[in-house]
Amino acid sequence: MRCHHCINDTSVRKIQFNSDGVCNYCQSYQQIEAKLNDRQTLEKLFQERIDRIKGKHAYDATVGISGGKDSAFVLYELIHRYHLKVRAFTLHNGFLSDDARANIDKLVREFGVEHEYIEFDQAFLKRFYRYSMKKWLVPCIACSYLGYAAMINYTSKIDAGICIHGRSPEQMLRYYGYDTFTALVDAGLQSIKEIDICGLYRNLLDSIEDKVDKALMQDSREMLFRDLKDDDFREFVAYFLYHPYNQKEIVEFLQRNTSWHGGENHYDCLVHHATKYIYQCAEGRPHILPEISVLVRNGQLTKQEALEQVEKDMISEAPDEELKQLCGMVGINPKITLLKAKLYQKITEK
């Protein structure tokens, strides 16, 4: 069964349909659709956040950059449009590509911005990735947690007013209403005066950690939040929640105004194709489908165009070298991982 409005189908986790055949993700999106399209109010909400912190900390903002187009664009805008004092950082999680690193080093020199690579203990990385792959088949869950934790800790450590990220609307809204990060979107659509930042982020971390091994989480808190004193949380702001997002226009802008030169989406990750393939085996379709559904909801794609895009995203052959690299790092057999993914897909089909 496929949603009457978008292209989500029964392979999407936690999906439900009403009597009109509309999925719960479309219904949740409709509840905030007017807010997402109210550009005047969104501009005020973002400016309120800037005014609240500008000039009041050692740095106005931190920005995580991966070498990709979105984070490069956000960094450019914060420096040249909003004139913020920014400190950039990059998570060196073990899978950062050489091309991405070269792009990052080039851009920070060009923008004249301070930048730091955040390193992780290798034994801890392997342990966390191994746990993530054994439980969820992919390292992405561990990457996400490491990213959020590092951003929270680093922003407090260097005394920046806020942390601003470049996640696309499709990434933020693909599971809106039914994932842990729904609370971040809802908070972002409110005045900062209405938000209990400490409570918001403490609840967010608790909800994530409830799903993970307790001993691992205890060690991760001690390692990843060592500089966060007295719950000194700074807001985690989504730039593209408040600003228009168009991939083609962003790429063209960067090519005209900077020396940025990027590859395909997620070219910064050495094992991206491996994780895509594992997801595909487990779900029976490209993992990107829920993100493409967001583009249908907001009118950027027709259902037919969206289905064609999903079909093009299918991987026809296993990326053996990437799979070996990914599984080799964490000490897991790639054949067993793929077997588990295909078994999961068969079970969920039934």
Outline:
The chain is of the alpha/beta class and 350 residues long.
Top keywords for this entry?
350 residues, alpha/beta, Rossmann fold, 2 domains, 5-stranded parallel sheet, 17 helices, 8% strand
Kindly describe this structure.
The chain has about 350 residues and is of the alpha/beta class. It has two domains: about 220 residues, Rossmann fold, CATH 3.40.50; about 80 residues, no CATH class. Helices cover about 55% and strands about 10% of the residues. Strands 3-2-1-4-5 form a five-stranded parallel beta sheet, with helices on both faces. Helix 4 links the parallel strand 2 and strand 3. Helix 13 crosses helix 16, helix 13 packs parallel to helix 17 and helix 14 packs antiparallel against helix 15. The longest helix is centred in the middle third of the chain and has 18 residues. The radius of gyration is 20 Å and the shape is globular. The two termini are about 15 Å apart.
Task: Assign an overall shape.
Answer: globular
Could you state the CATH homologous superfamily of the largest domain?
A: HUPs
* CATH top level assignment of the largest domain: Alpha Beta
Beta strands, count:
5
Uncertain runs are none
CATH structural architecture of the largest domain: 3-Layer(aba) Sandwich
| Ends distance | 13 Å
Gyration radius (Cα, Å) is 20 Å
Largest sheet: 5 strands, parallel
How many domains, as an integer? Answer: 2
Spell the H/E element sequence: HHEHEHEHHEHHHHEHHHHHHH
Please count the helical segments: 17
Q: Residue share in helices? A: 55-70%
**Strand order in the sheet with the most strands:** 3-2-1-4-5
Binned strand content: 5-15%
